[in-house]
């Protein structure tokens, strides 16, 4: 029996990183399932989600890995940085400690991914404006001082995922991203069955699902 054709041309691998409790898994569910979740249990290990989007007329499947924020899981979750085309780095605008730890998350992202990995900074829980502990201006300055990556608030979750994909696709078009490189985080016109992995990596631990 002939294999059914794929309905996408590319696979982009994303990772979501940041401290425990910042709402990473809520963002994942909001984007992949298009439903708002005010609270999620903490992730144990990693969680996984997918969604097909369109960029410049091309169907792209996003494979998104939500990593646990607890320090005791860092050794495990660092293995998922490998081969990521996009990294969404999340902090909680009501908890300054999560903002203060961004430098550590950024260091991991830059040391463990390829130089062309697109990084988006997301200030989550923007609906709790009265409890804000980190100003937008502070976060914007952090982004500008550390490479000028994009800053989005959680009401623009859709925008954050799409902006990363647009930038990755642009990198493909201008030749700055080598699709033949094992660590590119991009797969073009996959020949393996849908659900095949971008790179060889450990199976996610599915005991939990939150942020």
TrEMBL record:
GO biological process: defense response to bacterium; endocytic recycling; Golgi to endosome transport; phagosome maturation; protein transport
Compartments, as annotated in UniProt: Cytoplasmic vesicle, Phagosome; Early endosome membrane; Golgi apparatus, trans-Golgi network membrane; Recycling endosome
UniProt keyword GTP-binding, yes or no: yes
InterPro entries per the UniProt record, alphabetical: P-loop_NTPase, Rab14, Rab_GTPases_membrane_traffic, Small_GTP-bd, Small_GTPase
EC number(s) reported in the record: 3.6.5.2
Alphabetized PROSITE patterns for the sequence: RAB, RAS
Cofactor(s) recorded in Swiss-Prot or TrEMBL: Mg(2+)
Pfam families linked to this entry: Ras (PF00071)
Membrane topology: Lipid-anchor
GO molecular function, one term: GTP binding
Main location: cytoplasm
Record Gene3D superfamilies: P-loop containing nucleotide triphosphate hydrolases
Keywords, comma-separated and alphabetical: Acetylation, Cytoplasmic vesicle, Endosome, Golgi apparatus, GTP-binding, Hydrolase, Lipoprotein, Membrane, Methylation, Nucleotide-binding, Prenylation, Protein transport, Transport
GO cellular component, one term: trans-Golgi network
Reactions accelerated catalytically: GTP + H2O = GDP + phosphate + H(+)
Ranges where the record places region Disordered: 184-211
Domain of life from the UniProt record: Eukaryota
Top-level enzyme category: hydrolase
Quaternary state and interactors: Interacts with ZFYVE20. Interacts with KIF16B. Interacts (GTP-bound form) with RUFY1; the interaction recruits RUFY1 onto endosomal membranes. Interacts (GTP-bound form) with RAB11FIP1 (via its C-terminus); the interactions doesn't mediate RAB11FIP1 rectruitment to membranes. Interacts with RAB11FIP2.
Similarity comment: Belongs to the small GTPase superfamily. Rab family.
PANTHER family: DRAB11-RELATED
Name the record gives this protein: Ras-related protein Rab-14
């Amino acid at each position: 029996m002939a294999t059914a054709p794929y309905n996408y041309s590319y696979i982009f691998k994303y990772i979501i990183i940041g401290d425990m409790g910042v709402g990473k898994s809520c963002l994942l569910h909001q984007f992949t399932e298009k439903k708002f979740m005010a609270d999620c249990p903490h992730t144990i290990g990693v969680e996984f989600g997918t969604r097909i989007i369109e960029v410049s007329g091309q169907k792209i499947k996003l494979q998104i890995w939500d990593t646990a924020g607890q320090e005791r899981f860092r050794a495990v979750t660092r293995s998922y940085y490998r081969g990521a085309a996009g990294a969404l780095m999340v902090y909680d605008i009501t908890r300054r400690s999560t903002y203060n730890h961004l430098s550590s998350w950024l260091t991991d992202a830059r040391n463990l991914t390829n130089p062309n990995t697109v990084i988006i900074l997301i200030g989550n829980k923007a609906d709790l404006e009265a409890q804000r502990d980190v100003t937008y201006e502070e976060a914007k300055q952090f982004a500008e001082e550390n490479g000028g990556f994009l800053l989005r608030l959680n009401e623009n979750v859709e925008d954050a995922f799409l902006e990363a994909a647009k930038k990755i696709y642009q990198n493909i078009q201008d030749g700055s991203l080598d699709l033949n490189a094992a660590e590119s985080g991009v797969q073009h016109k996959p020949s393996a069955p849908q659900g095949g992995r971008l790179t060889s990596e450990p199976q996610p631990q599915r005991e939990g699902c939150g942020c």
